[in-house]
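Before our next group meeting I need something from you. Please put the record directly below this note.
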Amino acid sequence: MAYDIHTDEKYAPLELIEAGALADSCTQPWWNQTLCRVNDSVARIGVFHGEFHWHKHDREDELFFVLEGLLLLDLEGRTVELGPRQAMMVPRGVMHRTRAPTRTVVLMVEPATVVPTGD
């Protein structure tokens, strides 16, 4: 599957962030957009339907916070189901993959240095 990943910072400080409108207008099966920088991290909104590949980040932790839908977070040896208003932080170095059986909207927070597709 092709991923549509935008790492440019869409919103400046003190600018209203229209995350809901961005997610609502998305028609791609696997898309995310960096919203803004917060200190040395970024906040991203993602719309997922399908599965991402297995990967890890050697230097960065990653937070997945589900806003809508169901996110399956595959870790070595187990799968965690995250529903709306649930989140999980994946520590650096942990192999993982995300899957969404239906359209799912996720807020991600991670260091700005992260390569979204993994190291």
